[in-house]
Amino acid sequence: MRCRRVRSCLSAYCNDELSSRLKLAVSEHLSTCSACRREEAVYRSMAEATKELSSLAVAGDFNSKLFNWIAQERFAETRTRAYLPKRAPVVLWRQAIPAFVTVSLVVLLAFVAFRPSNTYKTAGSISPEIALDDSYLTVQPANDARRTANLNKGWSLGNELARAERMNRLSSAIVGQGVWSRIDRSPGLRMASMQKSTAAPFVMGYYRVRPVKKIYISPESPSDKEAGKAY
Amino acid sequence: MPKEPEKDIDYALMQAVQNGDMVAFNKLVDRYKDRLMNVIGRMLLSRDDAEDVVQETFVRVYQHRQSFNFQHCFSTWIYTIGLNLARNELRKRKKFKFYEISEMKGNETQLAVEMKLPSRLPQALNAAIKGLPEKYRVAFILRDVQEMSYDEVAKVLSIPLGTVKSRVNRARMMLRDKLQPKLEGYNALSKSTLLSVGLLQ
After folding, report:
1. Which residues of B touch A45 (CB under 8 A)?
2. A41: closest CA of chain B, how far (Å)
3. CA–CA separation, A177 and A191 (whole Å)
4. pLDDT score at A29
5. CB neighbours of B142 closer than 8 A, spacing ≥ 6?
6. How far apart are CA A122 and CA A40, in angstroms?
7. Which residues of chain A make contact with B112, given a CB cutoff of 8 A?
8. Residues 6 or more apart from A56 whose CB is under 8 A from it?
9. Given an 8 Å threshold on Cβ–Cβ distance, is B144 in contact with A50?
């Protein structure tokens, strides 16, 4: 056996952990090699010193401290048990599904009943039948947001829209009959002719904007004042 | 001393503890507190921390007494709990703590005089064990200091038997490298003393 192999086994040899065959081989090598014998002496001294290491001991009051700790744990455990229910509530799926369905229906009904409506309220009343009181609306041409229609006492969005529709129909008729080329294009008609003749929109270039607060006030009659209230 | 009777004693005590016998638990504590302290103290290198960990080990044993499986060895079980708690403590600290040898109980000096060993050798060995990497230190302490079998060490550490043997062998070689100068000096001194006595005679 070579020294390198023997030295790798020396610690096990000194602790009597080798098989009989390997032990014999190491012994034979040690009888002839002084260097390995010195190594063996080192390992044997180390093994002897390890056995002579004194064991560590706990303090004298270790047991009393330990049992105090355990007593506190037991006390905490009993206190927890006293306040907890004996059985945790068990939720069965058969019970959970109807409850879930009920809650969903209630939420749905509440949403339907209390959802914000699109109709505006007049002062002091809520009525879905009352259409928008267009006296208080302002309109703007679609392609020019800076222009606004002048508002007077007799202004009405419905009248304005009807006027716009008439203009649109007239322009469509003119373009369709081929009269267009013989008529001097005025700016108004020119604007009207720019609309599509095939599909004239109901609102020709006008759209309704958010109501403006107190846009119309008439000092002439109390009813007008009432009508002049903001939404 | 055969291990079987010890195992039977542990089983009987554990059975009594499961039935609520605190006297049996006290006996179990007395049987294992110093063994655990020997291992965990050398791992943590601090007496106070080691005592806390050993106490917590016994508390855990008590809390989980009903879940102890009698097909396993009680000593393996309690060492596993103790070492896991010690590892948690080491992870928490994440530093190497200087081990005050003077704080530890023991009579290394006296024993060294009786066995004709240099008084510094056990201290040197202790210091060398401190310097081992954790995995080699644990394996060495369990095998050579606690004199547990390789099978028991493998079960406690949850590693293969071959790995245990390899780690123990590696630990011994590391200690030998550190202690060789001191040990060679001791051996030379003892030989020269014998030679001088022989000459006088």
Report:
1. 121, 183, 186-187
2. 8
3. 18
4. 92
5. B39, B79, B148, B152, B153, B156, B157
6. 110
7. 52
8. B34, B37, B38, B41, B42, B47, B50, B104, B105, B106
9. yes
Instruction: At A125, give phi and psi (nearest 5°).
Output: -150, 155
pLDDT in tens, A38-75: 889 888 888 888 888 877 888 889 999 999 998 888 88
Q: What is the CA radius of gyration of chain A?
A: 52
Q: What is the DSSP letter of A121?
A: P
Crossing angle (nearest 10°) for helices A34-51 and B161-200: 100
Task: Determine contact, residues B75/B152, Cβ cutoff 8 Å.
Answer: yes
Q: Out of B34, B55, B172, whose CB is closest to A66?
A: B55
A66 touches chain B (CB under 8 A): yes
**How do A206-208 and A139-141 pair as beta strands?**
antiparallel
Cα(first)–Cα(last) distance of chain A, in Å? 109
Which residues are within 8 A (CB) of B83 and not within 5 positions of it... i.e. 6 or more apart?
A: B39, B40, B43, B138, B156, B157
CA angle B174, B176, B135 (to 5 degrees): 30
User: What letter does residue A199 receive in the DSSP assignment?
Assistant: S
Q: What is the pLDDT of residue B155?
A: 92
Which residues face A208 on adjacent strands? A139
* pLDDT tens, residue by residue, B79-121: 999 999 999 998 887 755 545 444 444 544 443 433 344 456 7
What is the nearest CA distance from A99 to chain B, expressed in angstroms?
A: 40
Q: Is B72 helix (H, G, I), strand (E, B) or coil?
A: coil
Token pair belonging to A135: 């006296």
What is the C-alpha to C-alpha distance for residues B20 and A97, in angstroms, rounded to an integer? Answer: 45
Maximum CA extent, chain B: 70
Please say whether the beta carbons of A205 and A163 come within 8 A: no
Cross-chain Cβ contact A52/B144 below 8 Å? no
